[in-house]
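note to self: dont lose this again. the chain is below, predicted strucutre after it. 280 aa total, dont forget to put it in the shared folder this time
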Amino acid sequence: MLTKKQKQVLDYVTKYISKRDYAPTLEEIADHLGVSAISTVHGHLSKLKELGYLDRPENQPRSINVIGHETMIKIPLAGVISAGAGIEALEMPESIAIPKSKFPSLSDIFALKVSGDSMKDENINDGDVVILKKQKIAENGQKVVALLNDGVATLKKFYRERGYIRLQPANKDMDPIIVKSGWEVAIQGVVMDVIHSEMKKTATFEPIPLKSVKASQSPTKANQKNSYYTPQELAATLRIKPPTIYRYIKTGKIKAYKIGKEFRIDNKEFHSFLKKVKTI
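---
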């Protein structure tokens, strides 16, 4: 998923084009972001192009195009969730932009900023934002925000065991929280999605020919945990540009289905494509 700044740029460009039928200048985007360095705008646009959200021909003014236009909506950032403390309210109210197609009902959706690394092995890191659905019950293995009877709120994986509840961190250096019978655990919400912080270092890939990718090449560790993949994730695994994956989807070389306006590739098709990639 995009970072907050990347979403801000994409949302601004999308609305600008929808209203005027042409793209904003780099200076206009910089002014919207409140930055003076055009290089910052270049960086955001390059990343959005790399991920397949934008098309931007070289040396052509106002030539940015949005690929697969996605309507974004804003939800409030309710506070900060940290280990061993309650949910800390923000001094200055903030909001988070999310795809409308993913969350058709906003009445029970809220966001919290993560402080700490107790869930780092689930790729939820310090500074990330989790999108949650308000609900009081959870199934085993779901990531939840739970409030303990001493007022402590925590982000952990939920497991109901025989005679107790286990709140499991995704960090091998941390012990689980065991809540015995008679103690209270109030589920505040279940994690639906994660917006990763821009402070996190992200890998960059140079495109290479498809035929040079080994058929046995495996997806990243993070991808192995998913039941479906985005075209951007498949492109990153193969070290090619996302538009190439979209072209394969349109021509039927990759089977994909749509959720709203977004393509999804299931686990079986993902690995099947990796095996036959040499023949493409």
